[in-house]
């Protein structure tokens, strides 16, 4: 009846809006970045940082936490792991919305093109977050929200096209395949 067609038009209009991702760009200046070597996942003192140190640093950068370790800061006294280097300009792009796997593959391919001339970046990252309260997570299991609803993976891609894949899930979720 009329109620059904009204409902259909409501959903079709609103679903189109919901499926259109929101994209924001920002430039981070004079950013302290960990020094990474693709072959050293554990890192080496005074040579490179570990995957765990990178993951923690990335969380701070994405949440716009200051990296200068000021004792007066009530939010964080976090500082960039050693060794690190200051990058004059880093580019941050955030895409929010319902994103299908094919689009993520396309994004990865586009990012790898960035290693063409001029070769300015040594490495770059792509982080994919599931919604904290998503009903499903990895495999076919329900997603346990509990405390934080962790549900993400992160690619670190190097200039030589080696890559790291980092995954994080909540304590009650299945591990990724």
Automatic annotation (TrEMBL):
One of its GO terms (cellular component) is ribonuclease MRP complex. GO terms for molecular function: ribonuclease MRP activity; ribonuclease P activity. It holds the Pfam family Ribonuc_P_40. Transmembrane segments: none annotated. One of its GO terms (biological process) is tRNA 5'-leader removal. It comes from the Eukaryota. This is RPP40 protein. It comes from Struthidea cinerea. The gene is Rpp40.
